Amino acid sequence: MVPARSSASPTFEETVRLLAHVPVFAELAPEDLERIAQVAVPRRFSAGEIVFREGDASDTCYIVRSGHCRAVREHAGGRAITLATFGPGEIFGELAMFEEERRSATVEATEDLQVIGVLGRDMRQLMRQHPEISARLVIALGRRLRETNERLARQSFQTVQSRVAAVLHQLVERTLAERSEQHGGAAGTQGARDVLVMATQADLAKLAGSSRESASRFLAVLERAGVISQGRGRLVVHDPAALRAYIF
To answer: Between the CA atoms of 85, 234, 6 and 16, what dihedral angle is there, to the nearest 10 degrees?
Structure first.
């Protein structure tokens, strides 16, 4: 469970605790987390601000402290696809820890965003000085790559409706986890009711890899069934357990 965040800059201890909850760093020893925290720098972005753009030099990785952002890939003709969204305790731009490649996507703050940044050159210096950090990061990144491949494989066999339901369910789980962090309880969808999700139909369609029209038709089905209700830029999932029945 990721600790709740304040609006002030994090203390060293808070940074260590945040790093400890990032899956990529899960294999690291406490002293390794402290070494990374020593070179971490807090940064803030306003809603709508670009953290980095596709094609920029990849020099920093970021861990979300509070707020949310999304990774977007633009294609010919101006069409954009949302590849992923990131919330508290999640990392993005992590390949910068290993090499200075060009960014493969644009990351934009969808609300006021607080992150801690780790420069790639600082991280590479730590890995040279402490090779065990490199070994543990490779294990964690390999696990993350395997999970991503499994998710993509599942999606390739899913219908549009199932993909939209799965994306919506993931957003519900994230919202409940963040709510749990604030109250010190356990996260989970079991028994939850009336969960507010700040996402538009276009957002859900992009995350699910579908057209907005297809996503809209399925959301209308869910609304008629009483599973959700919709508003401008927001959606309430009244029955998360019932939503799971649409995922297969």
So the answer is: -20
Whats the size of the chain, residue-wise? 248
Residue 39 and residue 135: Cα distance in Å, rounded? 20
Between CA 69 and CA 117 the distance in angstroms is 14
Helix (H, G, I), strand (E, B) or coil at 64: strand
Q: Is 68 within 8 Å of 46 (Cβ atoms)?
A: no
Contact 42, 10 (CB under 8 A): yes
pLDDT tens, position by position, for the chain (248 residues)?
Answer: 444 455 578 899 999 999 998 988 988 999 999 999 999 999 999 999 999 999 999 999 999 999 999 998 877 666 677 788 898 999 999 989 988 889 989 999 989 999 999 999 999 999 999 999 988 888 888 887 777 777 666 666 778 888 888 889 888 888 887 777 665 555 455 567 889 888 888 888 878 878 888 899 999 999 999 999 998 878 999 998 899 888 87
Question: What's the rounded Cα separation, in Å, for the pair 155 and 92?
Answer: 22
Identity of residue 213? E
CB atoms within 10 A of CB 139: 12
Backbone torsions φ then ψ of 41, nearest 5 degrees: -125, 125
